[in-house]
Amino acid sequence: MTATTLSYGSHDPDAPNVHDASDNYLTHGQGLRSWLTTTDHKRIGVMYLISVLTAFFLGGVFALLIRTELLGPGRTIMDADTYNQMFTLHGAVMIFLFIIPGMPAIFGNFVLPIMLGAKDVAFPRLNLASWYFYIAGSVFALLAIALGGVDTGWTFYTPYSTQFGGQVIPIVFGVFILGFSSIFTGINFIVTIHRLRPQGMGWFRMPLFLWAIYATSIIQVLATPVLAITLLLLIAERTFGVGIFDPAMGGDPVLFQHFFWFYSHPAVYIMILPAMGVMSEVISVFCRKHIFGYRFIAYSSIAIAVIGFFVWGHHMFTTQSAVANVIFSALTFAVAIPSAIKVFNWLATMYKGSISLDTPMCYALSFIGLFAIGGMTGLFLGSLGTDIHLHDTYFVVAHFHYVMMGGTVTMFIAALHYWWPKMFGRMYSERWGRFACLLIFIGFNATFFPMFVMGSQGMPRRYYNYMEQFKAFHHSATGGSYFLAVGFVIMAVYLLHSLFRGRPAPANPWGGATFEWRCSSPPPHHNFDEPPSVGDCYDFSNLVYDKQVGGYVLKTPDGAGDSEAGR
Amino acid sequence: MTELLGQLPLAAGEGSFWMPPKGSTVALDVDRVFYFIFWTSAFFFLLIVGLAVFFVIRYRRREGVEPGETAHHNLALELTWSGIPLILVFVMFYMGMKAMINIETPPSRAYEILVTAQRWSWLFTYPNGYVDKDLHVPLDVPVRLTMRSEDVIHSFYVPSFRLKKDIVPGKYTKTWFCATKPGRHVVFCAEYCGTQHSDMLADVVVHPAGEFEKWLADASNFADKLPPAEAGKRLYEVRGCMQCHSIDGKAGIGPSFKGVFGKKHAMTNGDMVLVDENYIRESIMEPQAKVTAGYDPVMPTYKGRLKDAEITAIIEYIKTLAEPEK
Amino acid sequence: MSDSDSQRDRDASHQVPPRPPHLAHHFATSKQQFKSGKLGMWIFLATEILLFGGLFCAYAVYRSNHPEIFAYAHAYLDKTLGGVNTVVLICSSLTMAWAVRCAQRDQQRGLVVLLALTILFAFGFMGIKVVEYEHKWKHGLLPGERYRPQGLDDTPESSAETTAAAASKPASTTAASRPATSRAAGTFEERSRIAPAPRGPAGLADDAPDAKPRRPEVRNVHIFFGVYFLMTGLHGLHVLGGIVAIAWILLRARKGHFSSAYFTPVDLVGLYWHLVDMIWIFLFPLLYLIH
To answer: In chain C, which residue's Cα lies nearest the Cα of B306?
Structure first.
């Protein structure tokens, strides 16, 4: 195999993959039209970033309105109907427009081909179509909001959603269209990983982030169609009165729940698996240590994806038979184990490492604590006796915010900061980055930890009004949410500021050994002239910090001493 | 007697930081599972976070210090920290399963009460036919509930009893409990059901030994013992009217009863209708027939649920709310 | 990627032999592109199977809970028409597969003709579907609240217009629950000859004194039609989508885009079309041939 020389430390302009960073994917082709018709996975990733963050902002506004209303029992700033719409729209927007597409569509799109040394994903035009489906679905969701809102809860349970609920059809149709975005992205990533891996990169030499994306894509592809048919049935029932979920017409409302959760439970693994993938990358790089237990982590991603399809009934413990409950409870505990394995492996990676508390690492550490709480509070909900008491209370709300926000959003932010220099060629302010991390950490716990206690004390969820004894908890939660908002605003400010005034980023600011750190920041339009040669992507021994460059460079040219095969 | 019960405090005192007071036989089981999971989780949380914090300090990046050489994997270690959690979660599963089986298995002899859930109130029908808005039960006696919903899915939740069961329309759902603590225990609806979901509350009133029967006898006879208008008032309070129709003039889900009798009111189709005995009776039996303008047609029918004499009593009560002639 | 592929790739980037026009910039070889397309299409087919799977699941749930509804109502479907449609689709799969073969062997005329034939068969299928749907519409055999059977007389299915009285046997074959009520010949509405009571006991009898026509013994027959229309409707939409896709391939074929070196789109559309056919092959017995 011909070795490819990558001695960019020498600043040799003729060396392949060394490019003047001012000729990159952002500058290649100007004007709105070039962006809207692009098939470049990097540009598509950035387009997703903008639209998804807009959705996050919208969902966040709903959240602040909810928390403000809940400052006092009874009416504070809105009536009950409006409040019920607020929590529905907060949930629907955050889940379908932010957290499910979020990490795969943004970071998967941007990073996956580069990590493989490829020029693009397998189906670039399908990739662009995915983004347009995302926009179309979002438009319908916004239409539902504009036409008067929905108040069924993001779960659309029948018969409430077939008889009442407001603008159910537009929002459900919007989610249906969003499903296509998810499916096509999943197909693209699976085929890319199967077919576009470079020479020498077997499955067990891939970065773990790609294992995570692969497992995520499998879920996207297999689960989303079931949601699609569920939503079609809901629309059919509302428009044509089909009666499939209506007991008066021989239908069964609980059938809807089975269909709905068959997708929506695996969906939560769509949310968390990419986050865990980023954890493996970030922990390893910022501890400058080979990831511990590569195979177990890789297999656990697949195990979570597979077992995750068989636990949906744990959302219905108070509705279904004892036999079904027992089976689903047992399987739910089984799916907890692979996650635990990952956490211990990450800790073992940190052992005897050389740990640097850059902003991505701060969020990764945050993740360990918050995801531990989120995951372990899931145990209370998987256990039948306790779940009957805790189901549909604030305990559940706290649990899923700890895993989704303390877990996924934390690593979304970590990924954003980790790959920000690569995507935009700029370094952000570390000081502000860590400060915002602290604010967000404090605000998050102040908001959501009291909810565990509220829930186990019996306060149900989706409650506009509440009993006096819960007031103090709600005050803490609302105060915490404002704190959170401030943290996010600060983050937006320093990130945007860095786009204009940030230090130009070197190719490898953090010392990563995966391929995206071999090309310039931002990458050139076609990523690589030639794919880098495959080595162990968790072996940092060949990287050394160069003060002049302000980042890491290779000690010896790539391929000169073929590094040890990755495990 | 009922006044005395009304003054009993919300069953409190023996609750913990996490859990409400234990009010039923299964609460003991459930709390035991809860605290087992809690302490196990607390242990592992402290272990994990403690290790992370320790590593961050001990192995922080220092100039010139390379990361240590350690193995990239260790099968024994990885199997251990897979195996131990597996055993622990199995115990949690088993304990939870046993508790649930207790919750789902009523004893053979139990006092049966029917529960009706509707948007947005609870109605409890006692074996003698009496209907109340609160659930009165005797202490230490197993009570079996047969529940149904008038409209959408509701959920019967009593935190002190650690009891929750979804009520799906179109079928009967059963559950049971045995109350061990006298006093009032709040009942919530725990499945979102619309505008007043968070106001759909009731109380379980647990009567000490011997007093339940007295209460039931007393309460059931109110229609006989009371003049029709007062009986009507009681019906208004316990049969689900109060939740939607005020008596102080404030519009709720339904129009207020204050000053409504004997006057003409506009309906949604524009007709002016006199609110007399016939109109009230029709609205109770066929509420969608003539809906007052400005209100939604959401009232459930009471056909088959109110006796003739009861309807008469309600009409008499509404008459007493009419404004005096000027 | 095999060694020779990667070698060819490196040669390609250094020596500039012309890349074939169909080879996208991010693929190294045509083979890699073809295999990627194939894998992608198979995954897409898996998603379609899961989509229909939900409906098959609903079918299974309702049929196991209410076998009498399915046994009773399926007789309103015309087996002959359904059978013809099955044959039509199978023929269309044949012509489609043959078309792929033609593309593989550079037989341009054959390719175009067979694609056109496939579209013709597809239209035939949709045409028969229209006839069937029209019949259901005319006789009020619609899902849910719209189920109001009318204009069906007593003679069991004999022609395109399946006829049956609502209160008596629609088909003589099965012995599922048949109401034993007497019926006046040729009429649909049945009226009780007992004078209605002024008021029934509370909560029991039907409301108004004017009797509604007696329903047949089998209740909620509309469930069958809900399932029928949802399944055949979704399938029909996929057939229409397939017609569009094949038409697009046909246009490209006429422009000479395909050859033995590059026939991937034909192959992939063919795969999709075979799935559409296969789904019908499951639908047909489940809906039409219930025993």
So the answer is: C202
